[in-house]
Design goal:
Layout (H helix, E strand, L loop, with lengths): L3 E6 L8 H13 L4 E7 L3 H10 L7 E5 L15 H11 L1 H10 L4 E6 L15 E7 L7 H4 L4 H15 L5 H9 L2 E4 L2 H6 L8 E3 L10
Parallel strand pairs: 1-2, 1-4, 2-3, 4-5, 5-6, 6-7
Amino acid sequence: MRYKIFVSSYACEPNLGSEIGVGWNWVLQMSNYFDLWVLTRKSNKSNIENWLKDNPSFNKINFLYYDMPKKLMFWKKGLRGVRIYYFLWQMLTNQIVKKTMKENNINIYHLLTYGNALWPASDYGKKQLFIWGPTSVGDIIPKEFSRHYNLIGRIIEFIRRLSVLTLKINLTYLNKCKHADLIFCKTKTTYDNIPVKYQSKAIVFTDVAVNNLD
């Protein structure tokens, strides 16, 4: 029996690395074992469809695409504004998640990317059987390094440290911990920052891999 899974993979595109590569390669590997409906950025559509033409064995993956209207994106350019855009994207795609899962009798929701535990998930999805990650939170740059940053870099690192200190009162984060049925933690630090009462649902599981070498 092949389980059906709805995958939220904002960053998911072939032949790229970093977070985008994580989303893409996890989807490809998962499709060997599960029937997938994958929601990603509409800007990824052309590259994905061109890749699928050359790799038809993966056409069984059901890709769904969504981008905000361009007239509402004047403030976003490249990575500038990506955090705000991601928050809005998750909120605006919630109905897509709900409609697709109900119409296809899917009860498993997997938040794959972005792998940042402080960023939101679909309100509908996280109330289903909710798989979260690999995700991360709590890893900070040692002060021995960050003190050499420019002013903006030091401010960003200060905000990151502050967010770690306030995890215990971060309701969005705690809500995801509560609803998640399985949490993949990228690092031991992430696992240690999961509230103790939810750690039984969490395992340390990396988001990257290498090809087998002969």
